[in-house]
UniProtKB/TrEMBL annotation, chains A, B:
Gene3D superfamilies tied to this protein: Aldehyde oxidase/xanthine dehydrogenase, a/b hammerhead, Aldehyde oxidase/xanthine dehydrogenase, molybdopterin binding domain
Residue stretches spanning the membrane: none
Protein name as annotated: Carbon-monoxide dehydrogenase large subunit/6-hydroxypseudooxynicotine dehydrogenase subunit gamma
Keywords assigned: Molybdenum, Oxidoreductase
GO molecular function terms noted in the UniProt entry: iron ion binding; oxidoreductase activity
Domain Aldehyde oxidase/xanthine dehydrogenase a/b hammerhead: 18-132
Length: 756, 756
């Protein structure tokens, strides 16, 4: 039987629910030292001195390190874009002569105890001459300025019957995973080899970066698999601490531990999203899109971090979305300001671009007098137009929209919303005199980034199956998904499959869990490896049972002779027959019932969806409530529908946060205004509706053997768009809402503009 | 250049000499519990009760476990001999209803602290009814009775011109490695997976045994590579603690540690050697051997442990040694007595058999009036007679003496002894009235047991090379030897090679370090794997440099174009080109510059040697001193002569211990008389001569690509024989010395028998 598509209970839950998860902070080693990072209290300044003597004298302090003690190292860009050189803007591990944002690491205190380290860190005396602070994006330094697009946009705008133009801001916010970062690094004093717990997302890449920065061979570093309390793009990138803690362990020849607190987290990990768009669309007289153009200022904070300019690039490359846009001109300027540097946050570039594009379409629909769903239906690419190649590339891959029926899904989503009574409820609310609105947003996602993932599948002599994959277990359920894929291909019970993700010794060719790639690319690698093991098992069983391979079949954990129910060998027995010294193993055959396979892919796959949001605005307070929310998402094939639904609901929660609540604001001096959860407002259960989910599997991905399209981000992608549209609808604005998040304060400012 | 044969400094020494070795007792985990084993204080008895209540109430005691708490498990035989069933004699993990030797584990106390555990263990109340105790070997129970041999021995004895017969006892002693045993077992409470530090010698085998006993898949258990302070056969076999400590870790879901103390060690680890021989040889009138027969009682202590009856089997199979013995009849009875169970100790069966055979030849030489060297020369197999097949098998392999010139080596050894003035010194001592003697013993060793060893060789992107081998690092220098073999095959500097031995996750097909197999079988596997990496590197370099493979050559860490010194790529660059996503890597090629290879071998190889010992006996005290000692050893090829010499010198030290000092004696009640180093006498530097070593490489082993024969045991094999011969010579005994060790007390008893 197949286990793909089954609602198999999460394998992770057995340990997580019993408190047996192994998170980075659960790791300890006898004799470990504790690190506390001393961070800049000012946003921009020249360092005159960093005085460490007082801190060094505190009892229990082992070492205080400043940039002067370190080799000169900057953190490299992970996702390079050809032709864009960011070397001048890379972040140093510790600030040398200049600090550029509040929270920038300046020194490190190492002590026998975390409390001593924290207390002593406050005794490190920073003497910094303040420099002028840039907080406004448009006043920043241009780190990169590039364009993506195709077609004759200028002519299209000349020929247009209608031109709709607007400005739109997406606010600075980011992921705040439940578990802040943590690292435990153990060192073998004899060899200098490092055992690292706490690197998630891209452990092999981080291992390689660290090896290069330390000047050692990558095989001297072993990053262990751990649990992680969420990733969402920010957790697991290579940050200054990812160099500092291992470097200190080697320097001091002792285990070193560091745990980030929440206040640090909010200024230290990548921020995201902050962009100012000036977008315009040209339509013919029937409302058919002729062209779009967008001029974006992207606020990247103080440095280019590991993501380089990939968020800006994705913003432009994905901006046309699922629509037939004959000509597109995008320009983006990456601006450096004195704020925390930025990177990806779940649905990077798409959350921003979708919000802007869909708001523009809403404004255009009103302006052209066309129903907004009808306008979209008119301009969505038709199923027969796919695959559709856009003359752009992102993440090093050409944009080729692979398969789907965008109009069909829009219709299904609207029908589902009607079936669930969304429009009826809207009417009812309005009848009650409430300021209610419905938002509809269509979006295109991308997932399954290559170039590869590698997986090992092996069977033990008890018949237990192990999978060593390159993904990481961030809470998303990837162990369950890969176990189902293995069980399906190998024909075993998922219960006997154990999946280990992100251990660099077990899987040195892993590419990590990001970009919604784990199921698509990682899953396909596991699928290939499991099929190879199956094939090998049949070959060996044929020798053991002395029958032709063609007469053999799998029987959930066994290989049996067709038509002879009593004649079979278990996979465990086959594994025994594969051991060295076995009479069934030929001299030059590799031992073990195991296979390593690599799945390589050139193009991404493009899932797509529709969000429908019903909002209820309190005109007095400006508070926006979201009583109903629907996500329709086409993902090709759901390995485990329960996990897909969970991903989508979680994404909506984050999307509502970004659309209504979450924002990293700064004052004029560059002081962050949101350094606790009292200021950085997360949606709670009270702010969230029961999310309706419609997962469709109508358009399997042609580019991978499972047909999967990745489901990790679509709950978030159009949340800003749908809520902006709903608020605009509620307030009956003629123009755009102009800015996310739609905090109560901003909504109060908008209520005067509406006609309702 | 080749690095084979070079005196490369030991790679292990950098960490060991700086105190950075990682021995089992160096491992700790926060929250670990400590185990203390409660051992039987009496040699034989029926257990009426094991009362644990008092011990359990001690503050800090977490659990007290008796056999009743455990699954019923007995430790299986590792080296099975077909047709011999020892199931009734296997040792249980904890004694159930009967104790059979002093030191047998009866209960286990687990506590938060090792001192609490030890104190509480004394509060476990054992109520045991004493049963009759068997201490004398001949009174024991026969666990196995078998014969090995060939030819018509009876007729040969009928036809003989001379028959020489004698009885001979080899005393019970064993290895006492500097580091007693220790285990740290960490458990992942989520999965039950075990991380084990402390299993040496055969980690993969022990992992598999443990998995079977625990009823889990072997891949759930990871045995880590550690340093070990000596092995010598006893350390690293599967003992009761190897089940108890992991079982407790899983049961209590906490890390558990156990460290053996010396008093425990002396009663707990395998004893060895104790045999009573009744041996006879038949000669023709010219002193040509016609046949030998030997009837052996082998004292195996209370149980059959992991070695089963392999020591008895080896005793018989190797007894004819390097001699032309036309007919041989061996019988051995394996006797169970109420003493510590036995296993292998370096040169198992050969130390015993060589001592007995060579003493017989010395007695025969005198009786036949032939010089003892001449008698040996006459009866040694001639070089032209090799390979020589004996119609016997041992360790599952047929006995085929592969290559050599036994007579030639005897002549070389005697010439070397003369050159070094042995005979002159003998004459000088005698001229001074001292009771001096010279012993000469010729011996055959065996090494390189199959069926296989597996090795991984991989190159990192810095050009560093890693080897994952199945051996274990017991102090013998195997890391250095395998690094040299790798460096030679791959053409890199041994300094860039790191060897990891005995990690079951890194090398799941390792067979371990024992039976002098690591260099022969493990080294050959490494050699094959390194050659495969070299071949792959040339293939990849050919793509990178766009030249034919035939035009490429290795250049110590690089691949270069012949005749173009400037045109080359480093192995690190080649490794980069082998990463997934590299343009040089073809779609279906495995990534990584790495290879796993298995070396399989059906037959052992047979090194051989000569020991010459000069002794000086104090007739008053019986004290035997050894002023001069020569080992001549043919080992085919020395990878590192310094290490070979070190092995031989260390072996002589242990051999002198077994020949003169070390003995586990028991009183009539089965109480061990040697439970500290005050009673179990080890040779110290004062007792040891400077050992002269003559390593020859005249007869490379035909059965492996390196030609190596294994050099781990030959310093010990004939030490009992040579010293027995020398003492006999010194005392001018007409008959044999009858018994080893030749303690001062026994020598005093012999002085009256001599004629000198």
């Amino acid at each position: 039987m197949t286990f793909i598509g089954e609602r198999v209970p999460r394998k992770e839950d057995s340990r997580l629910l019993r408190g047996h998860g192994r998170f980075a902070d659960d790791q300890d080693r006898p004799g470990q030292l504790w690190v506390r990072v001393v961070r800049s209290p000012i946003a921009h300044g020249r360092i005159r001195s960093v005085a460490t003597a007082t801190a060094s004298e505190v009892d229990g302090v082992v070492r205080v390190v400043t940039a002067a003690d370190l080799p000169d190292r900057r953190i490299p860009v992970r996702l390079k874009v050809q032709g864009i050189n960011l070397d001048d803007h890379l972040q140093p591990v510790l600030a040398t002569d200049t600090v550029r944002y509040v929270g920038e690491p300046v020194a490190v205190v190492v002590a026998e105890d975390p409390y001593v380290a924290e207390d002593a860190a406050e005794l490190v005396e920073l003497d910094i001459d303040e420099l002028p602070v840039v907080v406004e994006t448009f006043q920043g330094t241009v780190a990169a300025d590039f364009r993506l697009g195709y077609g004759d946009v200028e002519q299209a705008f000349v020929d247009a019957a209608h031109i709709v133009e607007m400005e739109f801001d997406v606010g600075r916010h980011s992921a705040v995973p439940m578990e802040p970062r943590a690292l435990l690094v153990d060192v073998d004093p004899g060899s200098g080899a490092l055992q690292i717990h706490g690197m998630t997302k891209v452990p092999v890449f981080n291992r390689d970066v660290l090896a290069t920065m330390l000047g050692v061979d990558e095989n001297l570093i072993h990053v262990h698999a751990i649990d992680a309390g969420g990733g969402f793009g920010v957790r697991g990138e290579f940050y200054p601490e990812d160099f500092l803690v291992p470097w200190l362990a080697r320097e001091l020849n002792r285990p070193v531990k560091w745990v980030e607190d929440r206040a640090e987290h909010l200024v230290a990990v990548n921020h995201s999203r902050q962009q100012h768009h000036t977008i315009a669309a040209a339509f013919d007289k029937n409302g058919v899109l002729l062209a779009m153009r967008d001029d974006v200022l992207h606020d990247n904070g103080a440095y280019a971090r590991t993501h380089g300019i990939i968020v800006p690039e994705l913003t432009l490359a994905m901006l046309p979305g699922p629509y037939r846009v004959p000509a597109f001109a995008g320009r983006i300027r990456v601006m450096l300001t004195n704020k925390t540097p930025c990177g990806t946050y779940r649905a990077p570039g798409r959350f921003e671009g979708t919000a802007v594009r869909e708001q523009l379409l809403d404004v255009a629909a009103d302006k052209l007098g066309i129903d907004r769903v009808e306008l979209r239906r008119k301009n969505l690419l038709d199923a027969r137009e796919l695959p559709h190649t856009r003359e752009m590339s992102t993440l090093g891959t050409d944009v080729v929209l692979d398969s789907g029926d965008y109009v069909g899904l829009l219709d299904k989503a609207m029908a589902e919303a009607d079936r669930l009574g969304y429009r009826a409820e809207l009417a009812s609310l309005r009848a009650q005199g409430r300021t209610a609105g419905l938002g509809v947003a269509v979006f295109l996602e991308k997932s399954g980034l290559g170039p590869q993932e590698t997986a090992d599948v092996m069977v033990g002599t008890s018949g237990a199956v192990r999978v060593h994959s390159g993904g990481t277990s961030l809470g998303q359920g990837i162990e369950t998904v890969l176990a189902q894929i293995t069980a399906d291909a190998l024909d075993v019970d998922p219960a006997v499959v154990t999946v280990v993700n992100g251990d660099t010794a077990l899987q040195p060719f892993g590419a990590g869990s990001w970009a919604s790639r784990s199921t698509v690319v990682g899953g396909s690698a596991v699928h290939k490896a499991a099929l190879a093991v199956r094939e090998r098992a049949i070959q060996m069983a044929s020798r053991m049972l002395e029958v032709s391979e063609d007469d053999l079949e799998t029987r959930c954990g066994s290989i049996g002779v067709r038509g002879a129910p009593g004649s079979s060998v278990t996979l465990g027995e086959v594994a025994k027959a594969c051991r060295p010294g076995s009479p069934h193993l030929l001299p030059d055959e590799p031992a073990g019932l195991a296979a390593r396979r690599r799945f390589e892919v050139e193009h991404m796959t493009y899932p797509y969806g529709v969000h429908v949001a019903l909002v209820d605005v309190d005109r007095g307070t400006g508070l926006v409530q979201v009583p109903r929310y629907l996500v329709a998402y086409e993902i090709g094939r759901a390995i485990n529908p329960t996990l897909v639904e969970g991903q989508l609901v979680g994404g909506v929660a984050q999307g509502i946060g970004g659309a209504l609540l979450e924002e990293f604001r700064y004052d004029e001096a560059g002081q962050p205004q949101a350094v606790t959860f009292m200021d950085y407002l997360l949606p709670t259960a009270a702010e969230l509706p029961k999310v309706d989910v419609l997962v469709t599997e109508d358009a399997p991905a042609p580019g991978n053997p499972l047909g999967v399209k990745g489901a990790g981000e679509g709950g978030l992608t159009a949340a800003g768009a749908a809520i902006a549209g709903a608020v605009r609808d509620a307030l009956d604005l003629p123009g755009p809402v102009r800015r996310l998040p739609l905090t109560a304060e901003r909504v109060r400012g908008l209520t005067d503009e509406g006609t309702r």
